[in-house]
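A further point concerns the way the authors explain their paired sequence and structure data. Showing the layout once, in full, would remove most of the difficulty. For illustration, here is how one protein appears when written out as sequence plus structure tokens:
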Amino acid sequence: MAFFVDERPLKIDRVHKIDSTGNFLITLDEKLTEEDLCKDIFLQINLDEKIRVYSIEVLDNLYYEGPLGSFFSPQYTEFYVWSPVSKWVEILLYAHGEKEPKKTVQMQRLEKGVWYAKVEGNLEGWLYKYRFFSYGKIRESVDLYSKAVSTTSEYSAIVDLSKTNPQNWQKDHHVHLKNYQDAIIYEIHIADMTGSKNSGVEKKSTYLGLIEENTTGPFGVCTGLSHITELGVTHVHLLPINDFYTGDDLNRDFENHYNWGYDPYLYMVPEGCYSLDPSGPILRIKEVKQMIQKFHQKGIGVIIDVVFPHTFAVGELSPFDQTVPFYYYRIDQTGSYVDETGMGNTTASERLMMRRFILDTLIYWTKEYHVDGFRFDQMGVIDKQTMIQVQKIIKSINPSAILYGEPWGGMNVAPRFGKDDLGDTQIAVFNDELRDAIRGSVFVVNKKGFAMGAHRKENRVKLGVVGSVQYNAKIKGFASNPGQSINYAECHDNHTLWDKNTLASKADHSRKWSVDELKSSQKLAAAIILTSQGVAFLHAGQDFCRTKNFNGNSYNAPISLNALDYNRKFEFIDVYEYHKGLIELRKAHPAFRMKTVDQIKRHLIFLNAPKRVVAFLIKDHANGDPWDQIVVIYNANTEQLTFELPEGNWNVVVDWKNAGIQTLYQTSKKVILKPLSAMVMFR
């Protein structure tokens, strides 16, 4: 056995077998230097062919803290790229519109594996790529740290970011959020909100179309931005708007080229397919800023979906792999990419430069675009230390930032950062226990939930009511405070609540369900979400019984199926008004937004109730609420019931038909509970 670095033999000190599968640990007699890592390293066993050695974990010793990316000034542009395994790196500079490089610039290797070049002159509008020579192969790639790109992300672009700022951008600020519990989040897709034929929006399926004002649809219902502001939510959660591989800049035909965007390519660049003109590197950036600015003017925060656990592909289709092969991904002992995500690859967030990339991306969107928070796709696959650093750094920049994600692990892998890891962090997670209690299993479509009268769901609903905190010996959950629980019944994944309940009703052989009953179930689900402690989360169109024609995974289905059909808003206007009224109630009354476990234990008491009924009392001006006592009742039975109330006269503000903050009528002693309904009353 022999070891070579650029044909220079190195003495092997010892070889140690580490497991029964043929894996060995080789210890050299001398340490490899930083310069050695960019050389050709081979292991030769007996007289067999030499085996190339790839540097991966050892590269963490070359952690680099300085600038990365391109930095423009009218006099010169500086370039920094981290590629410690490359023997040489070149910048290929292209005049706009040209296919062959006009200049090729050799980069200088600095310490810690970073390469640097300073190119004199005004390069504004020029395009570039990097060319690397690593592991005996020439590789070309756009800049991993690209801030702007050409059409289809073929080239990185050099831009003056100051020219991407809309008027009065310096006066734009993050939306203030005192506590996560104060957020009411509305999950939307750029194209879905405006892409239907009846949206009344001129610039359909675009960043600027989303902020067209005073748009209306069938029978005058508000659409797009006007719909969102009318509903009264505090934050919009945008499905991925960073550059994703299946986004088609050249063909904005969303009937044939639609995608949710969970296939990331470049992380710091806005996706071009939602831009009015993706051929201009500056325009899409400015449009996103205009969009965020308009939401902020309406008092609405903007949360963006980020997908760090995987990329669209590896190798030549991954700027990560082209820049530093294999380093940014989890690799098993056979040299294969580990698939914990279902996408064929998993990024290695625990590696220092990958962790840095995640942090740099989030910092950039927070500072440059003024976004108000992040939703982490497959967050459970990201390591705990990275998520803790994310919280520390982003909250230091914007104390109002809201951070949340999916707490479940990868394929056959336990979560690296799941519910059990939250501790006292300011990171929230999706509460799938409450989701399944309300709607039934997301995987078994004929399984009913509490909102359709399922058996033995009361305790799970109660757990959701208290924000999944440690309430007592029987009602105890994962959260150390209610702000860690994102309460929801529907999101972009799986069937819409309406479709799920419709399928469950068709499979129910015990009775026949009417449309009115399904509407009641939709209202009951909303009442649970919007009167429970924690963070309320709604999927766009849930408020008017959105359907996707029973497609449970519409990530690449046509826009005609995915876009919001505003005819349904008119058809189900009573359901919409009910959601709107519940949102008004939640915003007006802090009793539904308590901050601590102690508050919840002191002020919230569950009342004795029959089967399929959950009832509770919120007392003593909870969390400074103007109402002294509030009674909330959820009746999941399909028949009418009589419920005995606590002593006194009660002002009803929510019943089976209406919701809001105005007294509908008064009652005392007993109240009739309509089937599949909620009631809220105060005194």
